[in-house]
Structures are given as structure tokens and as C-alpha cells.
Amino acid sequence: MARLLLAEDEEALRMLIVDTLEEEGHVMDVACDGEEALRKISVNRYDLIILDHMMPKLTGLEVIERLRSMPEHASSRVLMLSAKNQQTEQNHVMDAGADAFMSKPFSPLALIGKVEELLNA
């Protein structure tokens, strides 16, 4: 069982991801925007942080940049979700410090596989 943070502004997708990963036994915290994600990160430890690329207030990239500047969270694992699936965008996300990238839409099974891969890395 791992503790995960999901930052996703689309409610339906947020609920699907939470339900999927809780069924796998993970403890889920959620944030609806980048600022809320950073507030939760500042007071909690997460085994994996799942960020939507395009969110209100702070984007997923901005969250990663701030996360990587916090010594206590600099090595946190991050999975970025994005509808922007061009290779240049994926490279930009990975260069910013994400550990993995998944294009939307994705299957719940693909998400489970990627989360387990990152948790076991």
C-alpha cells in the first residue's frame, strides 16, 4: 500500500483515477489545482505524485519545478498526465523532472501498470 497524491482538475477523471487506484489498495489524497497540490505536498510525504499537465493556478510543470526545489521532496516520484502527447511535450515534461509521462486518454489498466512500475523502481 502506497500513499499517492493526485492533482487533476477534471472531476470525472479524478474520480476514475482515485477509484482505480484505491481498488489496488493505495491511499489517495486529491488536489483540484496546482496550488492545492503544493500545499498538500508541503505537509505530507507521498510515494508517488500524479499531476495533470494543464491545471488552474499552477500547471503540472510549475508544480514539478517547485517540488524539485524543496530538498525534502526533490526525489519524490512524479507521473505527469497530459492530453498534449507530442514527443516535444513529453521531452519537456521529462526534462522538467517528471519520472514518467502518460498521454490522455489512457486505460485504467495502463495507469495501474505505470503506477506499480514507478513504485517498484
UniProtKB/TrEMBL annotation:
<dbReference type="InterPro" id="IPR001789">
    <property type="entry name" value="Sig_transdc_resp-reg_receiver"/>
</dbReference>
<dbReference type="InterPro" id="IPR050595">
    <property type="entry name" value="Bact_response_regulator"/>
</dbReference>
<protein>
    <submittedName>
        <fullName>Response regulator</fullName>
    </submittedName>
</protein>
<keyword id="KW-0597">Phosphoprotein</keyword>
<dbReference type="InterPro" id="IPR011006">
    <property type="entry name" value="CheY-like_superfamily"/>
</dbReference>
<dbReference type="GO" id="GO:0000160">
    <property type="term" value="P:phosphorelay signal transduction system"/>
</dbReference>
<feature type="domain" description="Response regulatory">
    <location>
        <begin position="3"/>
        <end position="119"/>
    </location>
</feature>
<dbReference type="Pfam" id="PF00072">
    <property type="entry name" value="Response_reg"/>
</dbReference>
<feature type="modified residue" description="4-aspartylphosphate">
    <location>
        <position position="52"/>
    </location>
</feature>
